[in-house]
Amino acid sequence: MEWEEPAIILRLSPHGDSSLLVRVLTRQRGVYHALVRGGQSRRQSALWQEGSLIMARWKARLPEQLGYMTAELVRPTASFLLDHPLALSLLGCACSLCSEALAEREPQEVLFASLAHFMGVVSVSAPQPPVALYLRWELLLLEQLGYGLTLDQCAVTGVREGLVYVSPRTGRAVSEEGAGEWKDRLLPLPSCLLNDEEEGTPADWLAGARLSGHFLQRAVFAACHRPLPAARDRLMTTLYRLAGEGASGQEAEERV
Q: What sequence ranges are listed for the domain DNA replication/recombination mediator RecO N-terminal (predicted)?
């Protein structure tokens, strides 16, 4: 049995002296594991990088076997981001979440297309990476896993405007009026998660990451008794730092 289709490299691990175990997200077949013979060699090292878009070829005698994979490089996304830590962190976080949250061999065409789109955007805007686009992708991941949030109207009043909070229990949006005295118990909902044209500020990114992270942990990873991936923790550390720097800069400007 064999197939060929576009794939995104999610994770690599050494196998023996020269081979690799690779985990990829394919367009029509979902997540696949495979063995890459000679993947650690100097000749192949540029091809097999996490976050790269490839044309993958998988072959095995039986469908349930691990199988072998070869590939042609389509876009070496990570190589465009080496001088831009935030962009590289976003890419690594997306790959880690897909690798650990998605079941094997279940079609994920919508998620593949959205991740490929994000990779294309971040490749050409690495100095100012699309953080809000990435956070909206995390919400899509939750939706595709069956845990989508309801962000189109207030859970209390039913209004569709002025949604500024999300219930940490139900995942439903709440307006300022609907929140009332309970606002301190709700998660802030930055507008950049609702508007595809808005990028937001570092403070918005941090609030958005805390929102999506809460539900990723609660709905996806807690069920498997696992924490969020280390790459997600590193991204949060970066966002906390950026939000702190932004607040310090604003305070200095106000003092002037």
A: 1-75
